[in-house]
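Course assignment 3, question 2. Fill in each field.
Student: A.L.
Task: Predict the tertiary structure for the chain below.
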Amino acid sequence: MAINYGLSEQQIEIRNIMREFALERVAPARQELDEKEEFPHALLQELGGMDMMGLYIPAEYEGFGGGSLDFCIGIEELSRICIGVSVSYAANALGSYPILLFGSDEQKKKYMPAIAKGKKYAAFGLTEANAGSDAGGIQTTAVLKGDKYILNGTKQWITNGGEADTYTIIAMTDKNKGARGASAFIVEKGMPGFSFGKKEKKLGIRASATRELVFQDCEVPKENLLSREGMGFIVAMKTLDTSRPGIGAQGVGLAQGALDEAVNYARTREQFGKPIIANQGLQWLLADMATKTEAARALLYAAARTIDSGEKDVSKVSAMCKLFSTDVAMEVTTDAVQVLGGYGYMREYPVEKMMRDAKILQIYEGTNQIQRGVIGAALIKEYASQKK
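Answer field:
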């Protein structure tokens, strides 16, 4: 019997819709998408037609109007089948959150409706060769000249890079101020001076597109500045606080998918005249996999509900959710390969792909070592305030 998480009728409906879509449309395509490293345009277009691309976007901007939990439920169901598809889907929110959180009403009305309907994709540009978690090390610059900002620099490892139409980019408007000199901009595909590097070849999530973003005297209209100059670091951190449960949802979904495959295999594979699931040692392994997956789901839903409650400081719970869920995903997918033995190592079985896909979850949107640093810093702050 499944745990009752008190989901609303709407959330149960989202789960059912996305689960059916994942099983009927994503599952038959995942192996070919992975092998061909093909971006899942057709699947995302279908989700757009189902009003699922704008699940997290307010209704006033033509979105579904769901909250963080609604969106995480959708990501979780896609991730049970294919992380390459789910990250291509979820990265749109990463690119959109800066506009939703800090954009003007005019900016939201201009960019959100097309993203909500799946007519355009979004991406987020923070990471550089020498600046990932260290926002103060960003080298991309933005200089105001007349009514335009001129951007120069390169962003690295950008999910949806080249496929997206709308990019939120963090660039330095005043290098002398360090992180406080960063600003955020909305950059459109096709703007003069904006181009892309090669599509990266990756260990996992091969269906997703990862490219460099190259800015060479890129002209960005002044009105595309998000909030005001110097707010880039805050925009980036608040965006990641909001989006990290989505990575947790990928971890939970992936772990659940791997557990499903492992249990189904163990029930049908016979050795010494009986299904291997009859062996107590294997039962214990599966029990640990199931328990950790459910614990990760409980933390994910709690984190998403905390964000939906309007709580302002969600850095710690968001980091905990991302950290725990993705570590669980790596462990469970590795164990699933072990359960299947030699078959688990073969490409014809999905757990091989699941284990490859799992690793990136511990890396992108802040490595899990960075998450531990965020949690530790929050604990220091909390306990210091209690002593006053």
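Instructor remarks: The chain has eleven helices and ten strands. The chain has three domains: 9-116, 122-229, 234-383.
Grade: pending
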